[in-house]
Design goal:
With 190 residues, the protein is mainly α. The chain has six helices and no strands. It is 93% helix and 0% strand.
């Protein structure tokens, strides 16, 4: 399926997919700065009663949040454009392929089956690609970045993440194993 997506992801759509990934990376970095900046406000500004430091660091937090927000919006726009362009190319290629089929081959398919392949199946791939550019990029980056930042802030407390992470991964594997057959059954019904 990756080859199918790559084949239909051309020109500006491919460039937008790359930019969407970069924007998500920027958003995650900005999100991960917030706890560090907050700890500096408490450890330095509040402890030493330095109102100027608290104000300046608070301004940096707002700036990081704004950059993260802009990056997130840019990611959403570019990921949407990229996934829609990819699915449009895929529908066009499928339509042309159907036009090359012989009458005997077309009789092997029902009209509803061909319509489902041109609409629902391509829409499912489009949604998967959009989720890939949004959530499946953000989750691993946030996880790795969060663990790295927690080790920088408190190595002893970061060990809790290292213990909990395999439990969370095991839970995700169980959920995916149970949901994939149900999803496949739903697609077969369609």
């Amino acid at each position: 399926m990756g080859r199918l997506v790559a084949h239909n992801l051309r020109g500006n759509a491919r460039l937008c997919a790359i930019r969407a990934t970069i924007m998500m990376f920027v958003e995650v970095i900005m999100d991960l700065q917030q706890p560090t900046l907050m700890s500096r406000i408490v450890d330095v500004g509040v402890v030493h009663r330095n109102v100027g430091y608290v104000t300046a660091t608070g301004f940096v937090m707002v700036l990081c949040a704004a950059i993260g927000l802009i990056s997130g919006v840019a990611n959403a726009i570019m990921a949407s454009y990229s996934s829609v362009a990819m699915s449009g190319g895929m529908r066009e290629n499928l339509f042309h392929k159907i036009q090359t089929l012989s009458y005997a081959e077309i009789d092997g398919f029902t009209t509803s089956s061909l319509i489902t392949r041109l609409t629902n199946d391509v829409s499912q791939i489009q949604n998967m690609f959009l989720r890939l550019l949004r959530g499946m990029v953000k989750a691993p980056l946030t996880c790795v970045g969060g663990i790295a930042m927690s080790f920088l802030l408190s190595p002893r407390l970061a060990l809790v993440f290292c213990i909990i992470l395999p439990v969370i991964l095991a839970f995700v594997v169980v959920v995916v194993r149970r949901s994939v057959p149900l999803y496949s059954q739903m697609q077969a019904w369609l």
